[in-house]
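pasting for ref
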Amino acid sequence: MNQPSRNKRERRNAGWIWLLFLCLLIPLHLWFPELGTGALDDSYSASASGKKAFFLLLELESYNTERNRVPISVFLQSLDYDETLCLLGPARYPSPQEWSAILAWVEEGGHLVITANQAHPEFEIEALNLSTRYLDETERENLPVVKSEKKGKKESKDKKDELDSSDLLALLEDEHSLLDGQATTKFPDAPSIIWQTNARVISESGEELIAVGETQQAVRQKFGQGEIVVAASSKIFSNQSMIDGGSVPAFRLIESAGAPDFFVVDESLNASGTSKVVALLIDPTFRPLTIQLLITLLIFGWWRSMRFGPILSSHILPRHNIVSHTDNVGNLHYKHGNGRALLYSYLKQLFTELHLRRFRGKEHRVIDPIARRMKSNPEEITAFLKQASELAKSKKIKRHQMGDLIRRLAEIRQAARHGKQQG
């Protein structure tokens, strides 16, 4: 009896592989693995800014804790009044229609905890005359900031040095960056904590729970038969905060809403507020359609491979410019007519390569060798870097001015690299 050829055996085995993938796809209609929302600071994330550790803490300390991925306006129809709904730094804040549903649920006896997202902390609850907004310049200066010993030593050295690193680096820092404030709380087991914030809560009738200096950071306010807790920052719930000992004040803040046994951590606002491309295909709304399309493509591929073999690719490959991406980016910036973004990116990369943060207070150790190679004055290079930093923060820069600055910065960069190559 003649044995089947090797090609026939491989083709027959390939049919079982196609069938196996088809059997794996069909059950996905009934069960699909739970994935994150795409946000880096949601309760699924194990990163430093995520809130997975706090979610596990709620599961451990309460009778029942669950996540919600259903739209809030729909989910509230089945949510009991003895549960606490937690909106912990959502990627987007509720819409007016969602706020109406939430406040109606709270007024009937529900409990709500909402904390601001430090990336965009400003929101308002008009029915309660309550809002959060960024700290202004005066409030940031008067905030009791906690400083480490190492940082204090560096600042004392900066006063003695002619080149103050803040002149070169502070110009690129965000004016709404987080500050580590020394906060006082109403919680007996955590009366004083370190609270990271860049905003404040404005409320005339709310009970103050956490304060940093003269700024309210968390308040509790009664609304109808329920209660609402609003905080100006959600960093206390992060995984890093759990490691640093912030679990007690974080849990007490959630507990202060009045229903400490049943919690719902909402992820629908993170899911709908995070930009998605491919992840949109596995969203619960579009998931059945995606699975059907995959099954159709799988069956089509199985059919084509069995009878006619794989589809042959084109024998003549198109030629592409290897720098087409760079050309396209350059054309876009040219049409836009604003070189600020390019200058900012180049300047930030240059400061990183020069390690100015590492030599804070000793910038002359970096600038002096560059000045010698360029046969220039160190003070002129320092003044030029300051000027470039200020222009990078402006709203618009002309193209020819941006080109001159980048060419000058490239000379500084080349001089710095020349020293590394010789070393």
